[in-house]
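Example record used in the benchmark description.
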Amino acid sequence: MKEKTHTDKWSDREWAEAAAWLSGEESSSSENARILVSEEEEIMKKWNDLKNREQEIIDVDRAWEKLNRRIEAANPSISLPAGRNSFLRTFARIAAMVLIVAGTGWLLFEVAAPQKITVATSANEKNIEVLLADGSTVYLNRDSRLTYPKSFRGESRRVSLRGEAYFDIAPDTEHHFIIDAGKASVRVVGTSFNVITENDESEVEVYVASGKVMITSEDGEQTLTLEPEYIGRVSDSNASQERNTNMNYLAWHTDMLIYEDERLSVVFEDLKRAYGINIKVADPEITDFRLTSPFEQQPHDTIVKLICTTFNLRSVREGGTYILYR
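Model output (structure tokens):
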């Protein structure tokens, strides 16, 4: 039988022979295996040409390896009768090309298909818990927004934050976790830390509870690497870090405030950050009073009442503001 280069010239019998070969009904032949290998080598050359042109779209090497494994798993040893090699050589080429094209299309769809994006927001509530696909957990402070994909793809795990959040990141050394925080990005492997982006997004502040965190400004000019118990601040024009001395820095997340001979001016600032309330005083001397007391999982109105009781003060509330007076 002469080799035919176009399938539209094949007879019904030749199509039947090709179908029988693909279904594995014929006996084995090393020569036929060699034919299929040679066809695959030819396809590899075409694939490498494609690789040079498509490098910006996908990781071709990884895609090829993945596709190759799928082909090998789906196709056990194939045999051809020796007398039909010439006819089926063309069919093998076409069948293999169909697999390559179909597999490539599937991979391109898998990589290029738009991801499902979720936006989590918190209004007046704090400690809104968000569980990510990789097992990481994010706790949003009030008036914050987290944008994240339903599933992570590619070489990194990337989310976007506006506001304040505490991150507990699942370790994955092969896929760094990256947070777009406005004027800076935060890059980690597996750690826990707090991130604050200002309303005008002019500066990003990060506190590291465990692990190590890298912060890079939007223009790439400023970079910080933070160790545990350090606070870093990055903007386009400046980068600085210092050791955290405020044991109540994460009070909004831990629901715990601890004071030992602390000035009320500091206490009022902590309450503003933890609960979103403002405290004003009718007498400036009140801010110099010193407080020693722990507050654990107490609502802010209870804390204000305890402060007033301790220092024999009175209070009046106007919306989200408390005014203390003697």
